[in-house]
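task queued by scheduler; priority normal; single chain, no ligands, no partner chains; default sampling; output format set to structure tokens
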Amino acid sequence: FKDWPFYVEAKALDLQPVAEDVHQADFFDLEIVEAPGAESPLYVKDGKLEGVVAKSSDVVVLSLVLSFLPTPEKRIEMVAKARQCLRDHRGGGRLRHY
């Protein structure tokens, strides 16, 4: 998505990123923070990713990660947490698993 910043402003997280523009984080450890009007969907404190701003994204993509979670309960927990990041928590945003 870097080639089309006028269409998409992507933010990537990974447990063990290999690219500099991917934030190192365990999504389960991040807080979902209320920060209406925040300029970024990511909450960074002292250079460390601490959380994701609630209702800050139009789309959340969970690429393969759900397939590697050990239990259905952990999958449900991750999807529920990801839904909190969507602008329209009632389902107007899009949550996709690829």
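post-processing summary
- The CA atoms of residues 38 and 53 lie 8 Å apart.
- The chain has a mean pLDDT of 86.
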